[in-house]
Amino acid sequence: MNVLAIIGRAVLAMLAAVGRVTLFAADTVSHLGRPPYYPREFAQALVQIGYFSLPVVGLTTIFTGGALALQIYAGGARFSAEAVVPQIVAIGMVRELGPVLVGLMIAARVTSSIAAEIATMKVTEQIDALITLSTNPAKYLTLPRVLAATVVMPFLVGVGDIIGIMGGYLVGVERLGFNAGTYLRNTIDFLEPLDVVSSLTKAAVFGFLAALMGCYFGMRSGRGAQGVGRATKGAVVAASVLILAANFVLTELFFSA
Amino acid sequence: MIDLVDVHKAFGANRVLTGVNLTLRKGRSMVIIGGSGTGKSVLLKCVLGLVQPDKGAISVDGTDVTNLRQGTPERDAFLARFGMLFQGSALFDSLPVWQNVAFRLLRGSLKKPRAEAREIAAEKLRRVGLSPDVADLFPAELSGGMQKRVGLARAIATEPEIIFFDEPTTGLDPIMAGVINDLIRGITSEMGSTAMTITHDMSSVRAIADEVAMLHDGMIQWTGPAGEMDNSGDPCVAQFISGRAEGPIETVR
What we know:
The structure holds two protein chains of two kinds.
Chain A: H1 2-30, H2 39-49, H3 54-77, H4 85-123, H5 126-132, H6 137-174, H7 180-190, H8 193-219, H9 224-255
Chain B: E1 2-11, E2 14-24, E3 29-33, H1 40-48, E4 55-60, E5 63-64, H2 73-80, E6 82-85, H3 97-101, H4 114-127, H5 144-156, E7 162-166, H6 174-191, E8 194-199, H7 202-208, E9 211-216, E10 219-225, H8 235-242
Parallel strand pairs in B: 3-8, 3-9, 6-7, 7-8
Antiparallel strand pairs in B: 1-2, 1-4, 4-5, 9-10
Helix pairs in contact in B: 4-5, 5-6, 6-7
């Protein structure tokens, strides 16, 4: 009996959490159509989430693209298929690794900082202060961050895709002896519009999830330093898992024939 | 006038307020005293709608404000009449001091041109005894006493009719506490504001109270003019004022 009760309680708690997150997301999105808006906060979030993430995105994808080229070359050599390196690097980076790795880096860099900032504001009564100053935290804190992440992530992933392919190109041309022109031609010819569209769509969804989790956990933070720590940890874990789960669902939607 | 009738609030099994009845007349300064953890902050937050009471009614000037929904124009109009000084000042640490003070003047229904908002912020900072050079500093660069002053300047920036002070002197040295008490007294009487202060600092009570109410066991134990506090005849009040460990108030909390 006890075991059943434990399982039941866990399932109920999980369903309640899903419900709370859904309501939080719906409330956030609903503020899109209801002024006042805070353009200054939105612009700041764009710079914080977009511009300042560029170095991390570039570093993550260039190394991944390079490693991918080495692996495909070594793997392909087992059945004399070394020549497919440009095509597989392109498809692997654009369809999967670009959006997922950039998404996870954003979860690490942006979700954590949003969650810690908002949780600290909550703990130090700054959220209460906002309300008493006739400012809705959902409009002032949540919406600008979530919207900025959703808008800017496709740009980041686009840049990441390109730099990842460049990583593969550098390794292919410098280490594996591919002809530079042929490598680029194969890459461009092989990629289809759907590959790019799926990549950027995934990016927008991941950006939305990453910022939403940061805000959600921040707003629900418990008291004190421990509360802030828990909120940050919960936000990063939830954002990462949701990004990976959403990636599976989106891949299924885009590519299951 | 603020009227609380039979206000209840519990957090889980912890029953914090168990039927608070309290009336605060316009233009008066009421101080609510009581030990730590007796629900003084919760009481203030109930009036402001930051915490929803489980039961009871709260009205301001005869209008019931217990169930105002966030985001409605009525609630905005209600909040626009209030200023609040938070216990930890609750300054926005991403904004420089002057933007904290002028927060309400930079957005929303009370929005003013930036230069004018800055002018008002500088004037309010002067009123609380801060020089204009602090205007461009960030809250983290200020001492606790200066942060309290900035919080006070923010609370009075739009000259609200009603101001709440949540433990205004906690964590300050006695001299700075005296300065803050004088500022509160001076500002509320020159603006004619209604003030509600919660504190457990007796020097604060004596400096700023017209009326005193004691919160104990989730209810108002005693209320009366500040002058009668010392001869209240109430054992809880007497114990609180003298700070004795023995008495009707349990010291293990």
